[in-house]
Design a protein that fits this description.
The chain has 15 helices and 17 strands. The chain is of the alpha+beta class. A five-stranded antiparallel sheet has the order 2-1-5-4-3, sandwiched between helices. A hairpin with a 3-residue loop joins strand 16 and strand 17. The longest helix is centred in the middle third of the chain and has 40 residues. The structure holds adenosine-5'-diphosphate. Adenosine-5'-diphosphate binds next to helix 14 and helix 15.
Length: 488
């Protein structure tokens, strides 16, 4: 129980002295009305390293930094106290050893004592707090900088799946702007991205239990029809106690996946296509050895011819394979120059007509157009499209080549009335090593169209196909038309 009566034995002067002399944390200065230091307590001396003799009689502005003195901060403080009776300040005070300490101060005007105005200045050392504040700000800006510069997409959601933050890479990877992301909102974004519900489950798990889930792979088809792959990780954190957020990191692995697929394609190709002629060569050498051991030299010729034919095929396969990998690694230079497209088409038709006189290959009349292209490569594309039209023609031997111009591009269309391609196989027809199921009995490697696409894309053009099974196909490519500036 508090003994109220006991308080009566102490005067307010005793309280003030106790507060002034014995307090450990509150530093106190007593100033006169002009800012001269009259008294200073022990806490101040301990905190700032001064002796009383260093301070008493000096102007309190000596405790300010030079910068603050030049801004007249000490005298402004004095005037505020004198005018308003009080002043609150946050600034640096300089220790005896010149170290600066961030303080929070309150000055109050004392009633006139000893005939003059007095100011009581109570100071709290909040340097450690200030330093932590600074380091939090620095840490925040450090994290912001990391977020802005990394290639991974980062998204932060709150418990209601509202988007709290998205970094620059997230917008870039998903081709969104701040406005479009807000308009779509997270539920709709999940609808397009998350067909297998994996991302939604990971978000729910992170927000719920907070258990760490290992990264998973998210595949989706983007707005341009390109297959994209991301390695996604979700982690929970609390921005405020009891308010969970989920941090989602999208690491783009489209290129890695593409390279993996290409490696697999090549390995499959080597395993299937190269093995046949090689086995054939080995068999024929075996037969020859047998003939030799049996002293029958007459049988050699046939086996030798077969082995040579297969060795030739093997060489061709390896060459084509090499060409296709070289193109993929963008290792070749285009020797571009102005090419009159109609003339190139005519040259190709003429050569093919010569070797296939039973075909009727028509060149439709069109506007004369010049393109900036590597002529050999352009002829390779035309040749490939035309040779395929011949190869997959079936009974109908009519082929037509047309050109159309629009939007700064010229489009070449090569139409046959042959076997056609089933609709389900159309998306894969330009892939490396892809061959439609029904035409696999005809000799081929499945590299030609792939090379055509690489060549045309290297010329900033596009390739595509339209086909009806049993009725025929039209293979297209478009190229930018060279204007007078690009023709030299
Ligand atoms: P290849 O002809 O050596 O197999 P391509 O890359 O030139 O290789 O063609 C890939 C596949 O596309 C062919 O195997 C064939 O199934 C299909 N194809 C190409 N052109 C035609 C066409 N004009 N008509 C029907 N199918 C075609």
């Amino acid at each position: 129980m508090i003994n109220v009566e006991a308080g009566k034995h102490f005067s307010s002067y005793d309280y003030y002295r106790a507060l002034f002399e014995s307090t450990q944390k509150n530093c106190v200065l007593l100033l006169d009305g002009s800012g001269i230091i009259l008294e200073v307590n022990r806490a101040f001396l301990l905190s700032f390293g001064y002796d009383a003799a260093d301070l008493i009689g000096e102007h309190f502005s000596m405790l300010f930094t030079e910068e603050d003195r030049s801004k007249d901060l000490p005298m402004r403080e004095i005037h505020t106290v004198l005018d308003e009776g009080q002043s609150f300040d946050n600034n640096y005070l300089v220790n005896k050893n010149n170290v600066r300490t961030w303080v929070s101060g309150e000055s109050v005007l004392l009633s006139k004592t000893r005939g003059q105005e007095g100011i009581l200045k109570i100071i709290q050392n909040i340097h450690t707090q200030k330093e932590s504040e600074y380091s939090i700000v620095a840490l925040n800006s450090f994290s912001e900088n990391i977020l802005a510069t990394i290639d991974d997409g980062v998204l932060v959601l709150d418990q209601e799946l509202k988007i709290v933050k998205a970094n620059r890479s997230f917008y870039r990877l998903f081709e969104l702007s701040d406005a479009s992301l807000r308009e779509i909102g997270m539920p709709m974004l999940l609808d397009t991205l998350d067909k297998k519900n994996e991302l939604s489950s990971a978000i729910t798990a992170a927000l719920g239990t907070g258990n760490y889930n290992s990264p998973f792979q998210l595949d989706f088809v983007d707005a341009h029809g390109v297959n994209r792959g991301f390695e996604v990780s979700c982690a929970r954190f609390e921005s405020q106690p009891g308010k969970p957020n989920v941090l989602i990191v999208f690491h783009d692995i489209t290129i890695q996946k593409d390279q993996e697929r290409q490696r697999e394609d090549i390995l499959n190709f080597v395993a299937h296509e190269l093995r046949n002629p090689l086995t054939n060569i080995i068999l024929n050498i075996g037969w020859m050895e047998m003939q030799m051991s049996e002293g029958k030299p007459d049988g050699y010729k046939e086996f030798l011819e077969r082995a040579a034919r297969n060795a030739e095929r093997l060489k061709k396969l390896i060459n084509e394979l090499y060409k296709s990998t070289k193109l993929i690694s963008r290792n070749y230079d285009l020797q571009a120059g102005p090419c009159i497209l109609g003339e190139c088409i005519f040259e190709c038709i003429e050569a093919l007509q010569h070797t296939h006189p039973d075909f009727y290959i028509e060149q439709q009349p069109g506007i004369a157009v010049t393109v900036l292209a590597d002529k050999d490569k352009l002829m390779q594309v035309l040749n490939n499209y035309l040779s395929n039209a011949v190869k997959y023609a079936g009974e109908n031997k009519f082929i037509s080549v047309g050109t159309a111009v629009g939007d700064g591009y010229v489009t070449v269309a090569i139409t046959d009335r042959g076997k056609g391609i089933p609709i389900k196989e159309l998306p894969f027809i330009f892939n490396r090593f892809y061959r439609a199921e029904k035409t696999r009995s005809l000799e081929g490697l499945g590299i030609g169209l792939f090379l055509c696409r690489q060549i045309i894309e290297a010329h900033k053009g596009r390739t595509w196909v339209e086909s009806v099974e049993g009725k025929g196909s039209t293979f297209y490519f478009s190229l930018p038309i060279a204007n007078s500036d690009t023709i030299y």
